[in-house]
């Protein structure tokens, strides 16, 4: 096997195993930054040795063992803080001796607890939202700094600084590497779900740039949410978010045409929707609803997405049910964006004249002044009501506010058509 093949295999193994290795090391050394550094040391060792020695039978176990050996070496050379040496050295030495006695390493040992702990640490409320997103993608998604920078259209040094500052904050605050309990757990789980949904949404509808979607981010968020659902099987909102992501992701292939231009929901070829993802989403939604508290904000949004997924044609969509679900969501999560989405459903169920006052009521809301979808919806309603000049002005306003090049072009085209 050539060096290129070895590197390709190593990249694939790293993407699958990095989170497990970092999580296991972080449990031992109680320092996320150091855990990642040790894992990177193991990756460098693999790059040096695998091209000549060959790929080991169990690559993940090889990387784990090498990383743990590096941790022991650092302890022996007093490169870790003295206050940690006795406790950590004993713990790691003991685990290493047990592994050597068994002459094998199980990379999945305690993996569920370790990954869950790492999720809670990476999404700690002490970090800003941008830092949580970057650290989650780096630690749990296995994405390199340049990949995260490209995905969010920010300079690579900016992402690197966010990650470095996040690790420093966690270390300075001595954030425990553990899953919190009780009310603190519920609050922290909300942060984890928020971060995963932010990652997914940025992939599903890119805020800026030339592409409408960034599928890699959707895939990473969906994968991490599946992991979380296995680790927290009794939490309804975890399954609700998983359902929402799967149902939304099922439409990805139909959302753009061959040139990458957006395709509106009414015009999408539903034969291109991923029926397997739809089934997975509906199954996750059923699990959420079967649990106590199964009508949370993510489950309600998933129920709305399910209405679209079940409709074989746009005209078959149960807009009355969607409108009702949005009303329930507005009670649970009051938001001008939810109100705007409900207005769209009302327009489909009862007509544009019923919906326009709901939209007009949001025009002066401070949070909506830079939100391009508000004038977009308003323009659509005005066009349907035959108020073409007002509709054109609304679409022009929306185009001026849009930061995504594909959305801007679509809105300019709609304005020009009027």
From TrEMBL:
SUPFAM superfamilies hit by this protein: Sigma2 domain of RNA polymerase sigma factors, Sigma3 and sigma4 domains of RNA polymerase sigma factors, TPR-like
Domain DUF6596: 188-288
One Gene Ontology MF term: DNA binding
Residue ranges annotated for the RNA polymerase sigma factor 70 region 4 type domain, each copy included: 119-170
RNA polymerase sigma-70 region domain mapped to chain residues: 21-79
GO biological process: DNA-templated transcription initiation
Domain of life: Bacteria
Pfam families noted in UniProt: DUF6596 (PF20239), Sigma70_r2 (PF04542), Sigma70_r4_2 (PF08281)
Protein name: RNA polymerase subunit sigma-24
Natural source organism: Stenotrophomonas panacihumi
